[in-house]
Write a structure and sequence with these properties.
The chain is of the alpha+beta class and 222 residues long. It has 6 helices and 8 strands. The protein has a single domain, classed as Aminopeptidase. Strands 1, 2, 3, 4, 5, 6, 7 and 8 form an 8-stranded mixed beta sheet that branches. A hairpin with a 7-residue loop joins strand 7 and strand 8. It starts with a strand and ends with a strand. 36% of the residues are buried. InterPro entries: Acyl_CoA_acyltransferase, GNAT_dom.
Amino acid sequence: MPQFRIRQRAGPDDAAFIAAAFDSTLPHLASIGSGKQWGTELWSQKENFTKEVQAAIHQSEVNRTTGEGEYVRVLIAEVEGADLDGGSGSYREDETGEKLLMVGAAIIQKAFSPYLVSDPKCETIINEANARDDFIFLRALASDFRTGSFRRGAGAALVDEIKMHARLLGKKAVYVDCWAGNDGKLVAFYERQGFRVVAPFEIVQPDKPAWPGAFLRLDIAD
């Protein structure tokens, strides 16, 4: 398994990488029977998604460097010395000139997504968590399937980094939500990282099938 670096310092160029990483998941999801998770529209073509990622990167850097505003972190998983031999992927150079392949990204924050807040099945859990202010929320997580085997383990490495952030902040839990279809394959991934399902939920939109979801919690050990 590759050795990952997790970068906390995010910049404007990372928005294009994150969109490309999310785009890269769509063919994979279709191939394993999970195409209904995110559909077929490229994330990079969704104006709201691009704006939200750019805003998260901006706020991440404001909060990281000044402590001001809401807590947000954009985390990038990278691999040293990766050579794709003509494959596709996004590279950058660090301060020493080391070439790094970006293989995954996560966004964490201290607020739940609105669709969870409005779901009756999640309401009590969210109200209690907000009252205690003892959590962080994993808003987005993706690895870049363009990078082949170099991405394997990136999701788990990012979750480990998020656990560390929670401990440093004195939080007791990390929450996440995910698609629960296709026999819960994605739910099982999060369970392997230590999460447990605390509530099911659905996203209902006009003229579309209901989107089945799972709301999960990971307890942070002292």
